[in-house]
Amino acid sequence: MGSGEFPIGRRMARWRVRRRMSQQVFADRLGKSKSWVDKVERGVRALDRMSVIQEVAGVLRIDPAVLLGEDTPARPAAAPLVAEVDDTRAALTRYAVFATDGVDRPEVPAAEVGRQVEHAWLTYQHAGYPQVLRMLPRLLDVTRRLPANEPTRSALRVQAYRIAASALVKLGDAEGAWLAADRAVAVAGDDPVLAATAVVSLGEVLRAAGRGRLAVATAVAAAHRIAPTVPGQGPPDVLAVCGSLLLQAALAAAGRGDPRGVEELIGQATEIAVRLGDGEDHHQLAFGPTVVALARVAAAVELGEPTEAVRGHEQVTGQAPWRRLPPEHRAAHLLDVTRAYLDLGDPARAGRTLVEADRTAPAEVRCRPVGRTLLTRVAGDGPTVAGVARLATLVDLTP
């Protein structure tokens, strides 16, 4: 029997035993819990994120293709926008001290740069990833060339780097995203709140790179740094950043299989969110009770609790604030719920949810590697839901 005939969790277990590692030792080397390892090996929890598969393969000292099934070569989800991603990475690696391109071009007024940054954020929030990537090289250039004495220079540069980090994470380029997020932290200077907004992006990047332990420590440290002396009594924009950091830490804890840490961190974020309410978009974070509820769903999926995830999804999407969230945020949540339905063995609902995500923000499904992977799973798992076959054809994922 070839290894391709085994589920990925069983292949992981076979190689773990072959390497003479107990579940606890294996979990320690991965930075995850023994419960996480046990659930993956029993098929209770899906192992469908490439960054995690690569990390597992590294600990087991095997090629990721072996985990994916050596007798069934995995058809990789095509990586769209490769040229645009490369252009953004090239822009990130330009250092002002060495730059010669654009030295003769006039500086763009800060007010105009601000409008460009705002437009890029709005485009990102509508999941216009191709457009955002085409904007980023110039946006990074004009923010870099702002005069040193311009009061808004640091804030605009941080925002540009945050947009780059978020877009590159979406498209599966964790390395480029890490560079962008690190730059955001570096240019924030001595402004603790501005630096904390950059750490929100850094936490997201660290999670995508499989560095959950570091993501928790970094986000919690940044949250404590800006936390008001009297809990819940600070300025709304500061509270929103603090709450967002706690959510990043909670999601990282979920990725590490730490339900106790998740509950504690989300509980703290909930207290802040209740005070703030929904409706404001401080620092492009949209933090509030609804975003906290969506994070709780995402954490449940990560922890291998799909029934809890679906229950939370049904509750939050039945409320008005859900419809006011940016399309990117809603569609990303629907991808999480698609995973939950697949984990429950319900491909029909998974398909309907995926089609809804595509209607909400097509690029979430068609451009993101995770969206394309889920589409491949749904299309190949039982009778095809209306719309799934058409969508698979549109993105060229048909067998």
Q: What would a concise description of this structure say?
A:
The protein has helices spanning 8-18, 23-30, 34-42, 50-60, 64-69, 82-92, 110-125, 129-144, 153-170, 174-187, 192-208, 212-226, 236-255, 259-276, 289-302, 306-316, 320-324, 327-343, 347-360, 362-366, 369-379, 388-394. It is mainly alpha-helical and 399 residues long. The radius of gyration is 21 Å and the shape is globular.
Topology:
Elements: H1 8-18, H2 23-30, H3 34-42, H4 50-60, H5 64-69, H6 82-92, H7 110-125, H8 129-144, H9 153-170, H10 174-187, H11 192-208, H12 212-226, H13 236-255, H14 259-276, H15 289-302, H16 306-316, H17 320-324, H18 327-343, H19 347-360, H20 362-366, H21 369-379, H22 388-394
SSE series: HHHHHHHHHHHHHHHHHHHHHH
Determine the number of helices (DSSP H or I, runs of at least 4 residues): 22
The poorly predicted ranges are 1-5, 70-78
Radius of gyration: 21 Å
State which percent range the strand residues make up: under 5%
Rounded mean pLDDT is: 87
The chain-level structural class is mainly alpha
State the separation between the terminal residues, measured CA to CA. Answer: 23 Å
Tally of strands: 0
Fraction of residues in helix: 55-70%
Largest sheet: none
- What number of structural domains do the residues give? 4
Shape: globular
Protein name: XRE family transcriptional regulator
InterPro entries: Cro/C1-type_HTH, Lambda_DNA-bd_dom_sf, TPR-like_helical_dom_sf
Domain HTH cro/C1-type: 12-67
